[in-house]
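G.,

No rush on this.
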Amino acid sequence: MLTRIMEACGLAIWRLFSGTLRAIWALIRPGLKVLSFVLLLAAIIALTSDVTSWQTGAEGPLFHSLAAIITQTAPTSFQAIADAIALRIHPFAWDPLLLSLLSLPAWIILLAAAIGFAYAARERKGVDIFVN
């Protein structure tokens, strides 16, 4: 009798927990879709800017890295982020890892982030499996 009560309580707690997570995900998913579209638009703008500067007179393709763009627009914030990551996580996490990632062209990083968020926010199809 006690085991059935405990099983029923555990099942009720699990249903409450999973229902809460589903409700939270239902609120977050549209935001991820919007964020993916904004990042895709930013990637297109960055690529267009780089290609346009190349076509108007630069010698060869000149793709600006995301680190260079952030350093130009907000140098103190970039340094503060670098110091925080080096201090709180590890200096190895900033210098070889994140800095090498940020040295890629901006449009590649923004496109990869947009694809990742769009994949996370995709509509999942339920699979009905029936055993006869």
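When you get to it, here's the other one too:
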Amino acid sequence: MNWLSLALGLLPGIIHGIETVVGDKAKGATKKQMAKDALAVATGTAASVLTGDDATMADAASQVTGLLID
């Protein structure tokens, strides 16, 4: 799996998760920040267990996903 497909795979899950948790209770900017925070937690968790090329791929996927969230 390459970093781009990993990034594109992360995005729907993050967005769906935020929508499920907060629904219409939060504004767009708040949801965007929540999505970025969720991505940061996922990236931190991945960084703690991955090494070498896998860690590099996860970091690249996280950066691309963060840009897509913006």
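Helices lie at 3-22, 28-49, 52-69. Residues 28-49 form the longest helix (22 residues).

Enjoy the weekend,
O.
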